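Morning F.,

Quick status update on the modeling queue. The single chain you submitted on Monday has been processed. Sequence for confirmation:
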Amino acid sequence: MNKRVLITIAAAVILFIGGLIFLRPSSPMTDADSIPQNNPLMNEDSEMDDQNSESKKTSAYINYYEGILDEYSDKKIVLFFYANWCPTCQPVDREIGRRVAEIPDDAIIINVNYNDTDTDANEEALADRFSVTYQHTFVVLENGQEVAKWNGDGFDRIISEL
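C-alpha cells below.
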C-alpha cells in the first residue's frame, strides 16, 4: 500500500510540474510586442533624428482616452477594437507596433479596449456609437464620420483603407 501511495504522489507531482511548464508563456513579451502607451515624454513634437523612432510609434498608434477623437479630428482615424484576451487581436497589435512607421502622417490608429479587463465606460460607449459587437473590429473615421468598418484582417487592410 505504501508503494501505491508513493507512486500516486510522484505521479501527481510530475503532472503538476508538467502543467506549470505547459501553462508558462513560450516567450516573454518584449516592449515591441506590447500595446503602445501614451507617454507624455514622447510626442509628435519630440525632436529626434529618426522619423521611425519611438516618437512616431507613440504618436501614430496609441490607446484610447476620453477626448482623443476631438484631439486628432484633423487626421484619418482607425479605431482598433481590441480585447486583451483575443488570440486574433494580439498578432495584429504586434504587427501594427512593428510597422507603425508605415502609417501615413495624416492618419492615426487608436487601440480601443473592447469587452476585456481594461474596458471602461467611455470605450463601451464608443463601441455602442459605432455598433461594434465584437473585438477585432476596425472603424475608419474621416472628419468624425464612419467611412469604413470591417472585422478581422491585419495591417495591410488598415493601410489599404487609409
